[in-house]
Structures are given as structure tokens and as C-alpha cells.
Amino acid sequence: MSRRAVLWVAFVVVHVGVALLGWFLPNAPMGDVYLVYEPWSSAALSGGIVNGENVGIVGLTVPWVYPQLALLPMVLAQALAWIGGGGVFAYIIAWAVLVTIADALAFAMLVGRGRATGRTVAAWFWLALIAMLGPVGMYRLDGLTVPLAIAGSLWLVGRPWIGATLLAIATWIKVWPAALIAAAVIAVRRRLAVLGAAVAVSAVTLAVVIASGGGAYAFGFIGDQTGRGLQIEAPISTVYMWRSALLMPDSAIIYDPDMLTFQVTGPLLDVVIAVMTPVLVLAVLSVAALGAYKAWRGASFVRLFPPLALGLVLAFIVFNKVGSPQYMTWIIAPLVVGLVIDRRRWFTPAALGLGIALLTQAIYPLTYDGLMLMWPQVFPVVLLTIRNILLIVLFVWVVMRLVQVPAHRRQASPHRATAVSAP
């Protein structure tokens, strides 16, 4: 059996296995799919009318926490529900099939003919991370943005218009790929093509939204994010999690029914919430400025883009007030690109990424019930603390990697330039 055939067998095994785990693991790892995606998409298909009541269409007639294109895959899953025979359970199956199809398309592009060692290593890494992260990586919107982000990033050199278009579409599904677009604008020589594609996708999306009567809610997802409290999984929440676990009377865990998340309470909470958004912006701008300096000094795409993309993505995670477990999917695309280009240099961060993914699944869904208590259990808080420390370690590593990027005007070798082009 060829190396490529073995990879595809592993692809099927991993995706079927992770899809099935969603049905058996505790704490509803598929909850978002049948609790929110299915009702939202059903309401959209019925014009906002459900059981005779006008509930509206999210992002168009009522505010929404996601960008408007996020509704598209939810509706597409409805079109695949016939596979499972109809109903909510069929929608869950359809969602898993949709994510698997999207992954398969990007996986085929990544593997190519199976002759490039870097691409093969990156493909195995992607499969391993999918398995270690578990159902939350499949049964969330983020799972659909990952293949778009991988394909878009790999196409940035040879086909920047196509690559940037895929990244822009992913951004209008879930905001995080904007970090990859920013990294591309800084690192890619044909940055006008990147900007042009991103602007074109945004313009078309906004035009459709406005024409559909959703102009008032076009950027509602931005306000929803800035107004959130500290979610229990966020790195900044670790101190409050320990205060709650140690039964300190001024700290506890509460449930936010509007955002459907568990959040922390404790001393100086309002101050921390208020400063986190400026701190996040400062961190992102600092990483971007470092990348821009390296680009100005002549750093090549193959040396600059992977650490810059990972640095910007990790800035969004490490300094975020939310920190949902599916956020860990965001690190996949930069790590995959890094392994394609230079697998030896990127072995350490890839190993850290696998550890982060495994700990994330151990937290959610396996021990999450121990975190949802008013005073959480110590063991899952320990797991969460280690996971968050690894995120910070990876962020420090990538910033150091950025500092060390050679900044002299030299053309990338043909071999390396081809390494990130589509096969």
C-alpha cells in the first residue's frame, strides 16, 4: 500500500472515530450542533417563522454572535440531513459529514501525490491533532474553518487571490482567520492581491446582508464579543478558577444563559474584563509590528509567515476573555504550514500543539462536569492550568522564533517556495 493510501485510510478512521466519540462522551460535545445550529438554520429556511412565532433570522433580522456567513454551513448541513433520515439526529450526522468533506478537500490538497515528506508529516500531524482534540474539533463551526485556513494558507504563494479568498470566507464564518489574513498581508509579496481578495469577499458578503435587510446587524458579532465576561477556560481566568476551587468566598462559577457559557466571578473582575480587550489588541498589534519589521527588512515568506500566523492566532487565544475548547483548532493551520516548510524546526511547537489538544479533550468533554460547579473540582482545574501554561509557552516560543527570523534581502530557494504552493 502506498504512503498516500495509508494516509487516506487513517483519514477515514480518524474522522469516523471522532464522529462516533461525539455520541458517547459526556457533557454533550455535540451540543452546539443540535441545540443552536439546527434551530438557527431551520428558522432561516422557514423565513424566521417557527411554530407560528417569528423568531427571526440570526445575523439578518436579529443580532448574532457570529459573522453572517456562519449561517451558510448550518444551512448546507440541512441539505445533507437526508443521509441520516431526517430530524435532529440526522442533522448531527449531516454536520459530521459536511466537516469531513471539507477536511477531505483540504487534505487532498495538502497530501498531493504523497511524495513530499514535509506534506506527509504535516498530514499525519493534522490527523493526530484531530484525534487528540476529539469531538469539539468536529462539532463546532471552527472545524469548518480549519480546512479553509489550511488550503488558503498553502495557496498564498502560488495563487494569492484564491488563498486570500478562502481565508476571507473563513473569516466571515468565524473571525479568527483574520489573523492569517493579517499575517499574509505582512509576509506575502503580492499583498495587494491578498487585500483585494479579502475586500472583494467582504464587499459581496455585506452587499448580500444589506440587500437581505440585515444592515443593522452586519457587525453585531463584534459588539457581542467585546461585551463578554471571563469564560472559565480562558488563560486569564485561571487565577479565578483556583480561587473558586479553593472555596474562597468571593469567587465562584456562574452560567451565562445569553452566551451559553460558564464564567468566573471574583475580586476586581470588572477591571480585568475592561482591560482584556485593550490588552488583546496591544498583543496582536505588537506581534504584527514585529512581523512587519521583519518583512520590511526583507524576510522571506517561508520563514516569516508560519511564525507570524501562529503568533497572531495565539495572541487571540492567550489574551482572550473566552477561551472555548474549540479555539484550539485555530493553531492547526499555522502548524501545518510550518511543518510543510521546515518540519525539523517546527517539531517542538507541533508537539506542544498535540499536548494542548490532548489536554483540551481531557478537560472538555471528559472532566468538564467538574468545572461547571459553583466551586470547581481541583483535578480538572489542574488540567486546565497545565493546558493554559502550554499555550503561553507556545506563544513565547513563537515570539522568539519571530525575533530570530533572518531579516536580510534574499530570495527564497525554488525548493522552499514550491513547498507551500498547491500541488
Molecular structure report:
The protein is mainly alpha-helical. Helix content is 63%, strand content 3%. The chain has helices at 3-24, 31-45, 71-79, 88-111, 117-133, 142-154, 160-171, 178-187, 191-211, 220-226, 238-245, 269-296, 301-318, 332-341, 347-366, 378-404, 414-419; strands at residues 49-50, 53-54, 252-256, 261-265. Helix 3 crosses helix 4 (88-111), helix 6 packs parallel to helix 14 and helix 13 (301-318) runs antiparallel to helix 16. The longest helix has 28 residues, at 269-296. The protein is globular.
Summarize the structure.
The chain has helices spanning 3-24, 31-45, 71-79, 88-111, 117-133, 142-154, 160-171, 178-187, 191-211, 220-226, 238-245, 269-296, 301-318, 332-341, 347-366, 378-404, 414-419; strands at 49-50, 53-54, 252-256, 261-265. The chain is mainly alpha-helical and 423 residues long.
Main sheet record: 2 strands, antiparallel
Which geometry do the CA atoms define? globular
Structural class based on helices, strands and sheet pairing: mainly alpha
Spatial strand sequence of the major β-sheet: 1-2
Percent in strands? under 5%
How far the N terminus sits from the C terminus, by CA atoms, comes to 21 Å
